[in-house]
Amino acid sequence: MKGVYAVFRKEMSLYFVSPIAYVAVGAFLFLGGMFFQGILSEASEYAMRAAMQSMQFGQPFEMDVTGETMRGFFGVTGTILLFITPMLTMGTYAEERRRGTMELLMTSPLTDLEIVGGKYLASIALFLVMLLPTMVQMAILFKGSDPVPPWRLMFCGYLGVFLLGASLLALGQFLSSLTESQIVAGIWTFLVFLMLWVLDFIVRSSSGTIGDVAQYLSILRHLNDFFRGVIDSSNLIYYLSLITLGLALTLRSIDSMRWRRA
């Protein structure tokens, strides 16, 4: 654990002196805040127009504006992460290899598991720091809601977003370990995540066996249950499997570096 903590502390210090981390976090919060305001305004206006029409025809009308806003916000947040995460992971290993500090890590008493674990936990910590300010928006939403929406909806939404981000970070770090250029790593990661985003559109227009396979592989499709306040074990297994796969591939990549330099 001491080795993991040492790598974790080193990575966190690098994150907070890197302009890329500040740009990524700033872009995420700006886009998230902009979309949150837009989704809330649109949902409120739609509910008001629908309520007026129902009053004219004497029909009852109910709409969960808070729930619709939360589901829309978490959905947009997941899409934003696909394009922001490459900025957080592209230099994790690529920059170390370019500067030659990766050799120092591999010749130190640290094991491959400690290196990968420390770097991954640091990226998770930064991701949580990035998510934390969005809770201010949730607090504003809850304060202005009557009745107050179920806390389960917000908890499940954040859980889904966290699992998505953790999966993307694991995959992104593996791609970063394959090259010495963080620009190349960023492009590769962006293209892979773009394919995952496009796969979500394929799911919507496909049927049969191909549609079922694409639906299971779609990284965004598994978020839908979380946004409805439902925790499905199959979705948990899917994201945990992605995280495990990304970290295992990264470990294999680090091990291959040792053999090439032996």
Range of strand content: under 5%
**Rg over alpha carbons:** 21 Å
**What would you call the structural class?**
mainly alpha
Overall 3D shape: elongated
Q: Give the tally of structural domains.
A: 1
Task: Please report the total strand number as a whole number.
Answer: 0
Give the CA-CA distance, first to last residue: 26 Å
* Structure annotation, total helices: 12
Order of helices and strands: HHHHHHHHHHHH
What level of helicity do the residues show? Answer: over 70%
Oligomer: single chain
Indicate the mean pLDDT.
83
For the biggest sheet, the summary is: none
Which regions are unreliable across 5 or more consecutive residues at pLDDT < 50?
A: none
Feature tags:
262 residues; mainly alpha; 12 helices
Provide structural commentary.
This protein has one domain. The protein has 12 helices and no strands. The chain has helices at residues 2-15, 19-57, 65-89, 94-99, 101-107, 112-131, 134-143, 151-176, 182-205, 208-217, 224-227, 233-261. The two termini are 26 Å apart.
